[in-house]
Amino acid sequence: MPIFGITASSNMSTKLTDFYQIATTTATGSTADVTFSSIPQDYTHLQLRMIIKGHTGNTNNTQIRFNSDTASNYSWHYVRGTGSAANSSAGSTQSGMQIGNHPSTAVASAFAVFVVDILDYKDTNKFKTIRSLSGYDLNNTDGVVALFSGNWRSTSAVSTIRIFPGADSFGQYSSFQLYGIKA
Amino acid sequence: MAATYTPIASITLGAASTSVIFNNIPQTYTDLVLVVNGKIESTAINAQVRLNSDSGTNYSYTDLSGTGSVAASSRETSNTYIRLGTNGYVDTTFGFNCVAHFMNYSNTTTYKTVLSRSNNANNGVSLVAALWRSTAAITSINFYNGNYSVGSTFNLYGILGANA
Predict the structure, then answer these.
(1) Which domain holds residue A104?
(2) Which of A32, A135, B23, B38 could bridge across to A145 with cysteines, CB 3.0–4.6 Å?
(3) Which of A85, A107, A140 sits opposite B73 (nearest CB)?
(4) Nearest CB to B63 within list A8, A18, A81
């Protein structure tokens, strides 16, 4: 029996979890990078939810750094689908963590999407580990979907997150949301 | 800071259904998250949805999947649906789980990209990035291609960004 017309309701005010808004940034033009600073130390985990595209004609990787640390204290792994093959790679002693790829301006209104979890971000007893689900599709020969893991070899609490492209800059309407999750 | 991640609608099938639709989705959030735990009455399918009743060739996807022995990636273009999972994950057991993120669903400037992580413990796991080539805000999501069984659950949540 078909069920038609289940009406979604905006009146269900119960929150699923202790999931809190922290900050939002939206690119209004060519944007070299996005930084969330003075991150509140009130949560257990952080989540970044983003839509990103490049400013010009090149596909690029997307990276993040913590606390303005530009030294070789990062590493990452990924498994990725390119539309024709699955592959995997890694980077060690890096100056940032790759979290995925974002598209060029080939399809003007299409963006890559990212959901990035930063676990135990304020725990000063642990190196920080992140996981990222990301992907885009342009209805042509370009598209990628990936699972990344990254590590920052520091026990410092994460107080600043910088998101930046491997080259070029972020394009208009790229949008970056940061949330906090309480245990 | 304000709490978010709000339940919008919840469906638990009391009878098998060939169509499950979320209509009149409120436009007051930044992202939607759809969580499904389901099975189907007969032949296994890939979970597929259409947005805003659009049955045109305006959808495409790129996927990554693992079967337990092989990892692979594929792509389809100019489809008439968004595929949320691959390899026939919706079968006659309650093995199909899916969490799909409909990012920036309510803006009217960008095409909509959906990121779906799904699995069936019996036969594999996949991640899909799907594109709907429309700048319209998403107001409805329709599972249209299978006869879902009693007890299948479909839960829709809204996440609102700060200052959004």
Answers:
(1) 19-181
(2) A135
(3) A85
(4) A81
